[in-house]
Design a protein that fits this description.
The structure holds two protein chains of two kinds.
Chain A: H1 3-6, H2 17-24, H3 27-47, H4 57-69, H5 72-94, H6 103-141, H7 144-150, H8 155-192, H9 200-210, H10 213-239, H11 246-274
Chain B: H1 5-30, E1 41-47, E2 58-61, E3 64-75, E4 78-85, E5 96-102, E6 107-112, E7 127-130, H2 136-162, H3 170-180, H4 182-201, H5 204-211, H6 213-249, H7 252-259, H8 261-283, H9 286-293, H10 296-318, H11 323-331
Parallel strand pairs in B: 1-7, 2-6, 5-7
Antiparallel strand pairs in B: 1-4, 2-3, 3-4, 5-6
Helix pairs in contact in B: 4-5, 6-7, 8-9, 10-11
The chains are: A mainly alpha, B alpha/beta.
């Protein structure tokens, strides 16, 4: 299938050099470029509507509730066990090497800089991203989006902006909870595992010795990047759904998979940039 | 679009809780200082080598963190570490900074001792005294050196044992000797075998010495005698000791002689009078002296004895004469 037919309206009419170059690209590469471009354009279009945000406060709160409040329990449970297993594994591995006393710093830094934001974002993609993609895809398939456009209500303003604002507000909260719960999980495991048995006081003293708030802040910035990415990708894929109801499911799958891949790819680059 | 008021409250609570947690974490980890850390003041520490030290490592005084290494740089022929010290921590001018390696993985920190009370404080930007410390690497280098020497020594030993292309080694030489003298050696061992067999059978002097029980008995008897002799000697010594003890206590003649002052005085007096007598004798004074010194008495006595002899002869010749008459004849 030629790439030009599947997507860009710009390719209609006389094809430019760039367009002809694009037709030569393998389809997956073209789709990646198409997805990246359309997501960035969606972001641009959404940001144009930021002044209308106060008027959408109700919708913003609703999205905050969905993204933040209802996601909190699962983030808490997951982070607790991630912190615990981190302490358990490092304690087991470090038993013979003698870095047991550094478990506090190890768990603390890993949770704050890496696993807290990544896990929060993964859960966001699974729980919220899928919901966003499904909702927008069905709205698109059942022509509700078209109806909005007909009424001169840009879907970016009504559907994307509140979600974007909500995720920006809620991601730091989710991440700090993930961090703290993970730290406590590690502390509990460190105390009650017989081959580690480090008192919480020394665990947290070690954590404080080797950690700075900049580490936590680093994680919060990463979480914001992941959150915005997940919401934008899921909105974009939802709004670009074509065809019948069957496409809704396909869109959800694609949205979640793309989000997860992007989280991990971006994780590398954001970490590198923040170092 | 209207919101459920409860939903709004929940979101608000959740958000505020999150912000509070971020604040608590921030206060706990950074003590409220985020971008503008305590600038403190700086000191310069010059070393021959900074080893593993890098910017951001701790500066500790008596184990307590008081700052960190702001930057490391090369200044001419030495390396300098610029230390950022917390503004409320003052360092004495005679305090010494050393680079300490923490553990085997080699993260380092600068350790500063307390200095003395009398010394003034170092001013900001001043230079602190430093001392070099042996680090793991130099210890390892020494160990490596030692290893090389050991290897050389062992190699020399190996060469002398196994030889090289020019000269056969000790083992080859021994091998040659053994090969050349195999016949002699086997003969010698055969002889030795015969000798030991004989000895075992009790033949010859040595065999008898080893196998005959008589010798053993005699030896035993000799030892017994020796023991008896020793016992006697011991009792003799005991008696002698007793005697000496008696003497010491001043008992008996010898004791009195040795320890009694009066007896000694008497003895001295006797000796003195004895000497007087002997002097008189020597000078021929007194009866006894004359007797000893004057030989006229001897002559007279000899003449008297001659006369007596003649008188007895006459007595035989002249028949019985009264004893008085003979004596009178003889004397006159």
């Amino acid at each position: 299938m030629p790439n030009t037919l599947s997507a860009s309206p710009a390719s209609r009419g006389t094809p430019s050099v760039t367009d002809r170059l694009l037709t030569w690209l393998p389809t997956p590469v073209f789709q990646v470029l198409h997805g990246t471009g359309s997501t960035l354009l969606l972001l641009g279009r959404t940001l144009r509507h930021v002044p209308s945000l106060p008027r959408q406060f109700g919708r913003f709160i609703e999205q905050c509730h969905l993204i933040g409040y209802t996601t909190m329990p699962i983030v808490g449970i997951l982070s607790f066990f991630i912190g615990s297993v981190l302490a358990l594994q490092s304690g087991h591995a470090g038993e013979n090497v003698g870095y047991k006393q550094f478990i506090g710093a190890l768990v603390g830094l890993t949770m704050a800089r890496e696993l807290g934001p990544v896990m929060a974002a993964v859960l966001l993609a699974g729980r919220v991203g899928s919901a966003i993609a499904a909702e927008l895809a069905s709205m698109k398939v059942y022509q509700e989006v078209d109806a909005l456009e007909t009424m001169n209500i840009p879907p970016e303003r009504m559907l994307v902006l509140p979600r974007l604002a909500a995720v920006l507000t809620m991601m730091p909260v989710l991440t700090i909870m993930a961090d703290l719960v993970g730290w406590f999980g590690g502390a509990i495991v460190s105390k009650y595992t017989h081959f580690i048995s480090i008192e919480p006081a020394s665990y947290f003293a070690n954590l404080r010795q080797y950690m700075d708030f900049s580490d936590v802040l680093n994680g919060l910035i990463k979480a914001e990047v992941f959150g915005v990415t997940v919401v934008l990708v899921c909105c974009n894929i939802g709004l670009n759904t074509r065809g019948g109801p069957r496409e809704i499911g396909a869109s959800v799958t694609r949205a979640v998979v793309t989000s997860l891949i992007l989280i991990l790819v971006l994780d590398f680059f954001v970490t590198k940039a923040l170092m | 679009m209207t919101n459920n008021p409860q939903q709004t409250a929940r979101v608000g609570l959740f958000f505020l809780l999150g912000m509070a947690l971020i604040w608590v974490t921030f206060e706990t980890l950074s003590g409220g200082k985020l971008w503008f850390k305590d600038k403190g003041y700086q000191l310069v520490a010059g070393f021959d080598s900074l080893k593993e030290l890098k910017a951001g490592d701790d500066v500790r005084m008596a184990g307590v963190k008081i700052g960190d290494v702001a930057l490391t740089r090369l200044a001419g022929r030495r390396a300098e570490a610029v230390l950022r010290i917390d503004s409320d921590k003052r360092i004495k001018a005679d305090a010494t900074a050393t680079i300490v390696t923490q553990g085997l993985i080699g993260t380092g920190y600068v350790s500063i001792d307390l200095g003395t009370d009398a010394a003034p404080f170092l001013p900001a930007g001043g230079e602190i005294r430093t001392a070099a410390t042996a680090d793991l690497n130099s210890v390892m280098a020494q160990l490596g050196d030692l290893g090389r020497k050991l290897e050389g020594a062992l190699g020399g030993l190996g060469t002398s044992l196994n030889g090289d292309s020019r000269q056969p080694g000790l083992l080859q030489k021994v091998d040659t000797i053994l090969t050349e003298n195999r016949e002699n050696l086997s003969r010698t061992t055969a002889n030795l075998q015969q000798i030991t067999d004989k000895v075992n059978r009790g033949e010859g002097t040595l065999g008898r010495l080893l196998n005959d029980s008589r010798l053993h008995d005699e030896l035993l008897a000799g030892v017994t005698e020796l023991k008896q002799g020793a016992t006697q000697a011991r009792s003799f010594l005991a008696n002698a000791e007793e005697l000496v003890a008696e003497v010491k206590r001043g008992r008996g003649t010898l004791g009195a002689l040795v320890y009694d002052q009066k007896a000694a005085d008497d003895l001295k007096a006797s000796l003195a009078s004895l000497r007087e007598v002997s002097e008189q004798l020597a000078q021929g004074r007194g009866t006894l002296g004359q007797l000893l010194k004057d030989d006229s008495l001897v002559r007279e006595t000899r003449a008297l004895l001659k006369k007596a002899d003649r008188a007895i002869d006459n007595l035989d010749d002249t028949g019985p004469i009264t004893a008085v008459g003979v004596v009178a004849n003889g004397l006159f």
